[in-house]
Amino acid sequence: MSRAAAPRAAAPALFADDAVPLAALKARAHNLRWAAQPDGVIPLTAADPDFLAPPCVREALCRYVQGGPLSYGPAEGLPSFREAVAGRLRARGAPSADAARVLACDGAASALHLAARALLRPGDEVLIPDPVDFLFERAAVSAGARPVRVPYRRGAGLDLEALAAAVTPRTRALWLCAPHNPYGQLLSAAEVRAAAALAHAHDLWLLSDEVWSEITYEAPQAPTAADPDAAPRTVTVGGFSKTYGLAGLRVGYLHAPNDATFARLLAASEAPYTAYGAATLSQVAAEAGLREGEGWLRAFLDHLRAQRDHAACRLGALPGLRCDRPQATYLLSPYVVRGLLEDPLLARHTSDSLAASILAEARVALVPGSPRFFGAGAEGLVRLSFATSRGLLDEALGRIEGAWGRVLGRGGAP
Questions:
Q1: Domain encompassing residue 154
Q2: What pLDDT is attached to residue 1?
Q3: Are residues 383 and 369 in contact, defined by beta-carbon separation less than 8 angstroms?
Q4: Which of 257, 292, 327 marks a domain boundary?
């Protein structure tokens, strides 16, 4: 049996109820999760798995620590890490991916901010989807740029007419989320073609956040740079917190379309002056996942697919809610069906008040679809992560179902 196949055979044990280390999570898992919640609350909040990292990752970390000094690495990143990233991009369909143009970063969020610093100037405008993860807006604003929201439609993706109409002489970039957070939709080939045409016509950068690209179910997510017209303008952002549970190691990357852009990113990073740089230990962990974690990842996706279908069915049965099954991510975004409510009380709720009511009545923490997290376009939804065990997911769903009448009765914002 191959190394890749072995973890798949052990999948039930890897993702069983007793595989969730609750005591450790309550001590270590911050950012809206177990360590940040009162006792008794189940947090289906930040997109960080409840499970241990793959065995191959943990073993690689141990070998590296025991094998020698923990010295500085190259400013650009470890050569083997950069080659592993480029190899994965090529395997996903981007033939021009080159290790020489991969820059190791301390997480995908940091990579977004770095790309903004390198490519934008104060007063520039950046087109971003509405809704989308709040990090897009924060990264643009941190560079002095102005984010311009373009409607992103549930089930349909970017409003391409609105996208073209939003371009002004100050527009410098279009940022894409592939797959999309919070809806879990794949970025389609038609959207990439439209983005590439717009970028060519107006001399725009394309920034493609592909941190969720490995968590897909019925179809893969092709890299934006797989499109030959998009590739010359595309800076790709990637990371490993979603795929291998490495959030605390803070490791990600940028891939540049050419040597000049890579030099620009590297200079903006300050890594050559040791003021910045991804930890070598984190790169070792991510490389192990890329090179040896395929069997574990397949098993994880099998578990997640079952979790998705189970939770979407139960949440979609609650009066006044609809819950679509995402094509990607391990996030569900049930939303209020305005005008079709079996219980008119739900119409009084905002995303914030609905999440607050669920927390108060069911002791389950969710992320509200409020502007501070996703933009105005997410109003009416709450987001939950199902990257946990079936036992914990069922406990959380059962609590929500049992408290639903009381949740509605609390009412919304005045």
A1: 59-292
A2: 29
A3: yes
A4: 292
